[in-house]
Amino acid sequence: MGKQKRILITGAAGFLGSHLCDRFILGDYHVIGMDNLITGELRNIEHLFKLENFEFYHHDVSKFIFVPGELDYILHFASPASPIDYLKIPIQTLKVGSLGTHNLLGLARAKNARILIASTSEVYGDPSVNPQPEEYWGNVNPVGPRGVYDEAKRFQEAITMAYHTFHGVETRIVRIFNTYGPRMRLNDGRVLLAFIGQALREEPLTIFGDGSQTRSFCYVDDLIEGIYRLLHSSYVQPMNIGNPDEITIRQFGEEILKLTGSDQELICLPLPTDDPKQRRPDITKAKAILGWEPQVSRNEGLKITLEYFKSLSKMEIEHKDF
Ligand code: NAD
Ligand code: UDP
Fold first, then answer.
1. For the chain, does the N or the C end have fewer beta carbons within 10 angstroms?
2. Is 190 close to ligand 2, i.e. is its CB under 6 Å away?
3. Which residues pair with 269 in a beta bridge?
4. How many CA atoms lie within 13 A of 41 on its CB side?
5. For position 188, what pLDDT does the model report?
6. Are strands 246-248 and 214-216 parallel, antiparallel or unpaired?
7. CB-CB neighbours of 155 under 10 Å
8. What stretch or stretches form a coiled coil here (predicted)?
């Protein structure tokens, strides 16, 4: 039997980070989770604390990072991800995408580890091309409210590529499109959570703008499988991972009402500045290179997600502090 591989996962207590911890524990890796808990919750990973092959470091990755021992892989997932979060903590968002990524690339270089960084469909901004292929350079407003996230992620991609080119670090870049599933925070403001929370509290669903903007929602298990395959592939250019099944936000609201059996209505609120009008991944590369495509339909994924949120206490569902 070979030596157990060691992997550092940043953002481990968050939605995606915690699912990645589970996936790599399942694959018999030694997992080191790191998080400063700014938007994450320890309960997402508390089931791992009793395991010998899991360690947790409470640390801000924008500050110098020390990890003893060898590392084979690093997954950099630490960053606020919902517009509500990154508008509340814009400077930390810029720092974790820039300084945090720099620290992790330095660590990868020092440990001779392969590093995969979590980029986003937001690098395409408000796209003028639909679906978005990886070659599209994007349409981002650097000084608009979303710029703190979008530009941090664009810088993150640039410095990652530079470490690959100039230092020969083994890098991977995943561009993640809207992903959902259990362990998201009901009050983090992302549309699925807003709608499910509102339906469970028997409030009207808030549509921003006229609801004609589109998104394409990917179930978390599909995304995690795509990331697992990308990490183990030899592909160094950015790769889209997402579900191309595109839907308008109004249709999505109607789906949530039907799914929850709610008789509430959809009400329209002003559209936030620079809200992308359309978003749909072109996954030609993921299909050809990783043999990956999503397996879970929106209907199936939403049912699982709804069951998770229904299992939360009533107090948690009532609590909306954004
Ligand atoms: P999340 O908020 O649930 O998780 C992020 C985690 O990072 C949290 O646990 C938070 O406490 C931690 N964190 C933030 N700043 C940190 C710092 N400086 N040091 C240490 N830990 C820090 O968000 P998520 O949805 O799980 O997103 C994870 C990653 O995936 C992010 O990089 C995000 O940009 C990217 N992403 C997510 C989506 C999505 O749909 N969920 C889409 C595109 C990209
Ligand atoms: N949205 C909405 N109502 C809400 C929250 C969000 O209509 O209560 C819209 C938002 O304006 C955007 C889409 O839903 O067009 C997806 O928003 P989200 O914050 O989930 O993520 P984004 O894809 O914009 O980063």
1. N
2. yes
3. 208
4. 10
5. 86
6. antiparallel
7. 15
8. none
Are 104 and 10 in contact, with CB atoms under 8 Å apart?
yes
Are the C-beta atoms of 132 and 93 separated by less than 8 Å?
no
The radius of gyration of the chain's CA atoms, rounded to the nearest angstrom, is 19
Q: Which amino acid is at 181?
A: G
Protein residue with its CA nearest to atom 23 in ligand 2: 178
Ligand at shortest distance from the CA of 146: 2
Ligand nearest to the CA of 272: 2
Ligand 1 touching residue 39 (CB < 6 A): yes
Q: Dump pLDDT digits (tens) for 160-195.
A: 999 999 999 999 999 999 999 999 998 888 999 999
Give distance in angstroms: CA of 190 to centre of ligand 2.
Answer: 6
Other CB atoms within 10 A of residue 139 CB? 13
Which residues are tagged catalytic? 149
Average pLDDT, rounded, for the chain:
96
Span from the CA of 165 to the centroid of ligand 1 (angstroms): 26
Q: Calculate what percentage of the chain has a pLDDT beyond 90.
A: 94
Question: Residue 97 CA: which ligand 1 atom is closest?
Answer: 32
Alpha carbon 50 to chain centroid, angstroms: 26
pLDDT for res 322: 39
179 lines ligand 1 (CB under 6 A): yes
pLDDT of residue 301: 98
All domains of the chain in start order, with CATH: 6-179+218-241 (3.40.50.720), 186-216+245-274+296-318 (3.90.25.10)
